[in-house]
Amino acid sequence: MATALVDLYGGEDFEPFDRIILPEGYRPREDEEFMCGRHRAYFLRKLKAWKEDIIEESRATMAQLQADSLREPDLADRASSETDWGIELRTRDRQRKLIAKIESAVRRLYEGEYGYCEVTGEPISLGRLEARPIATMTLEAQERHERIERVSRDDEASAERRRGAPPEQRVESVGSGSLPRSGQD
Fold first, then answer.
1. Region for 175 from its dihedrals, namely left if φ exceeds 0, alpha if ψ lies in -120 to 50, beta otherwise
2. Annotation: CATH topology of 2-137
3. Which segment of 44-48, 89-93, 100-104 scores lowest on mean pLDDT?
4. Are the CB atoms for 39 and 28 separated by under 8 Å?
């Protein structure tokens, strides 16, 4: 039990990792113990700063959208404004989902699970965590997951074609997910 406390709090002196003061410009190194207190403190600060940036950007955008009313007399201007609103609202929705992933990563930090692949249990490389702090899988596990997902989508699309589903009800692969086809191209 004492080992778990030492590990959770980031050092022999039981200093909680969220209170560790890091040197200016500190970056986790491979020669340090993986997910030691300094690593956890670094990623906690990185995740919190990322979340704050997203929230601040969202506030600024929403304030701008509220200031720009949709009362343009010209129909083309109004249509353009409505399109801009739609794009911004979709962006905000993506950011809301990203914030949920950031909060999940922070929870994993406090639970001692951050930095370890949820599939294999292996450490996720520091380079990957630096580039994508919300990563939950090693690069290899993520690639395997995406291959399986792609095959599954392809199988689903083939089955729909065999069943003769109308084109507007077929599923098409888009990015990392499948979306129903709207019939509008």
1. left
2. Four Helix Bundle (Hemerythrin (Met), subunit A) (1.20.120)
3. 89-93
4. yes
